[in-house]
Amino acid sequence: MFKTLDDNSVNLDKNLKLMSISAIVLVVLFIYTIFKSDTAIHNGSYLIGIGFLFILMFVAFFLQKYKSKLKTNSAFSKELASATSQTKENLRDAYVSKIESVKTDTTFDDVAGIDDIKGELEEIVDFLNNPKKYKKYDVSLPKGVLLVGPPGVGKTLIAKAVAGEAKVPFFYQSGASFVQIYVGMGAKRVKELFNEAKKNAPAIIFIDEIDAVGKSRGSSNDEREATLNELLTQMDGFDGKSGVIVIAATNKIEVLDEALLRAGRFDRRVFLTLPSKEDRKKILNLYLKHKKYEIDIDKLAYDTSGFSSAGLATLVNESLLNMIKNNRSSITQEDIDIAKKKVEFGKKQHKILTPEQKDILVTYQATKAFISGKKVALFDEGLSVDDIIYPSKTQLENMIKANLAGIVGLEVIKNEPYVVFYSELSKAKELAKDMVEKYDMAVSVENVIQSLKAQLRQTISESVNQEKINQLKEQLIEDEVVNS
Description:
α7 links the parallel β2 and β3. By secondary structure, the chain is of the alpha/beta class. The chain folds into four domains: about 5-95; about 110-270, Rossmann fold (3-Layer(aba) Sandwich); about 275-345, Helicase, Ruva Protein, domain 3; about 355-484, CATH 1.20.58.760. It is built from 19 helices and seven strands. A five-stranded parallel beta sheet has the order 2-3-4-1-5, sandwiched between helices. It has a two-stranded antiparallel ribbon with strand order 6-7. The longest helix has about 30 residues, at about 5-35. The relative contact order is 0.07.
């Protein structure tokens, strides 16, 4: 890339010698011409010429004398350039670190509150442990499993548990680790990840926060799109019999590119929600295992409504720290109360509700469950969407009613409008807009919304229906989930 330092030194010596010799020769010739000339030189050009030659000779000798310093500066410049180049190469290599698997000892016994999804996960474990049983019937397991849920519900822990139960290599990567400064580095990392997994098959690839790299294409981020294209290509490059399963986690499924969600890639989606009261009891019993405590687990499970599994882990850990601080050997209610305050004011994401706030939420969700006729959990935002190929006007109106039910229910029962889940109001308006602009089933969005709200008010105001809503409220308070 650069010339060697020895070559630079040789060139510098040659230049200095040439300058010195030229200056001496010119001075000698000039003096010789003066003494041999028949005509004396009387003008000032003589003095200027001789002065210039002496200056040239002085510069040549000066440079010759201090050439060692010039060599040092030249060497420093070359070393600096070389070091800068090497640093860039090292940084570039650092972005593509070696992909390695890890062995995890986590099992389903270490994860509580996942009874609803455990069956689907055990099927994957069984396939990895007994592939011949499935290959005998030419059955292919889904290439990808997408875990969808809010932060802290244990998506990473669940993926580790699947790998631990199956006793297979676990390749963990964060979606953000694929998004690199240098174009092509993320795609290269994806390729290396899948190659390593195939070499170690059966294996599990887990991509956490896949939305960091899997967002819908069309933006100006060429590196991220190149990485996503490589991910899609790699998932197309192996079949369900290869023994490699991709598990990804996200809390923003709505931003993912449609190509990731189509059949043949992430075929199976597992939706995780905040744990119910019974789930929280199981999680607390797990975290308090082998620890001394003087607290009522049932009461604590009730008081921690809205906590994720990670939030409960933090609560128990903070309680233990306070216990140690006060030189006690068992956790008391005082430790729990102090820990709850720390979690409440230091962790905004945990929904610690007052009794009044909880009643508002319960009323909202119970009314929604009554009108929609669907399963609703206390902290669920939105409703499961039926796959309607040919929607009728009545079906669309029922979907709008389901999204407006909680809002109208609070307005009727509490005699005042409340805002609980704004996204459901937005969804209702979006469906009404489709009825007006796409399907030509209504005149205006406002007419649709107001008409359906009026129908809901009439339905909810009937005493018989309010009794049913109150029954659903009681069930929600007790179980934090209801099936209307």
